[in-house]
User: Fold this.
Amino acid sequence: MPVLNIRIRTGSDETKTQQIFNQIASAILAGKFSPGDSLTSERALAEQLGVSRNIVRNAFRRLEEHGLVEAVSTAGRRVRASKKRRATATAGVERGDRLAMRGGSKKAKGKRQK
Assistant:
């Protein structure tokens, strides 16, 4: 299992959950993890970082929502295969932000053209 080298910055504009999510997502997208690699357990990572388990759990759930990791019953979480991750190249960017980067939704574009 590759080591997660996560650092929580105090005084950051990002929440602890967001910091953990971004750092794990970046490591996965950079290829530091192979598909099928197990991630550190919620409990172990929470203890390592000195944060509550809920913070780590929320970060892991976001990773699942973005298709970067999958939950495996009784075995924790593991990295998904890369073909399932292609659409998440903008990991960490909320849906509304992605729409803004593309110039807005079709509905918003139609309103602007009138």
Notes: Helices lie at 16-29, 42-49, 53-65, 95-102, 106-113. The beta strands are 69-72, 76-79. Residues 66 and 94 are 10 Å apart (CA to CA).
